[in-house]
Amino acid sequence: MMTHDATLDHTDKYQFGVFIQEMLEQMLWTNGADLFSAIMLQAAADAMHSDTQLSEDKPHNINYVIDALVGQSWYMKGFYDNALKKYQEALTDSASARFPNEEEKDVALANIYEATAQVYERLNQYADLAAYEKAAIALRRRTPDQYYVCYGYYQLKDFGSAIRECTEALQDQPANLKARYWRARAHQDAGDKGAALKDFEMVANSEDSFRASAAIEMSMIYFGRGDNRGALSILNEYKYLYDPNFTIKSDVAVAYNNRCYALMQLDKLREALADCTASLKYGNIPDSYRKERELLKRLGAI
Length: 302
Prior knowledge:
Blueprint: H1 2-7, H2 13-28, H3 34-47, H4 64-77, H5 80-94, H6 102-122, H7 126-140, H8 148-155, H9 159-172, H10 177-190, H11 193-204, H12 211-224, H13 228-237, H14 249-265, H15 269-282, H16 286-298
Helix pairs in contact: 2-3, 2-4, 3-4, 4-5, 5-6, 6-7, 7-8, 8-9, 8-10, 9-10, 10-11, 11-12, 12-13, 12-14, 13-14, 14-15, 14-16, 15-16
Organism: Methylovirgula ligni
InterPro entries: TPR-like_helical_dom_sf
Protein name: Tetratricopeptide repeat protein
């Protein structure tokens, strides 16, 4: 790195920054590479005459790439306020950076806006989440987390705006299942259960990480209609709901609990008891304890 330090002023600083950013971003996301990535980050900062400190000694002499990488490091450690501070500094320091053209500048700024949006999501600051994601989209048109805008509006209970933004994201990215899921949630909470079911079904039939949640929400819509057979049909259709190898344990617990309720309502008590007991293996849902005890009484076991 000392060689880079001596020659960096005579090379393409921008390309060097891009190379460093790509290399260290991968390193920061690698499990068990914390110490090595910290050493490399400091070496990169030295080579770029920059600083990795949270409170900078020379705040006007920092490379925005280093700011962003330090922000990512704090983000990965769960210190979101610190990450936010560094990403905001990255935006400030990018103003004095030289880019080959406006397109490269837009991409760099969009990446910082998107990273900042991710921090605001962790901080549950949904208005800022939507605003920064919109800023990223305006510069890049497409972003990996474009659904963040409609998700932010959903969390703010602005369901109309959430539906509009999710629909816009889907027009640009039809395969964006996260946007489809949050549009379904917005439709559901706005009272349009039919539209919600259509979107939930597409997610439930996919391999997206939200598919279990989508299938469970479908069952809840049927329960809300008083259609226990319909709910049971949904819960039986998606076999992955009961496989902890494919579905997180908390969702497995909810799926078993919901099916237990449907079976109870249809007077299939022994099947219901088996499901309530199974639910308790995967999570401590109070309702499952209550139903299990009620079923044991009704079956004469206690």
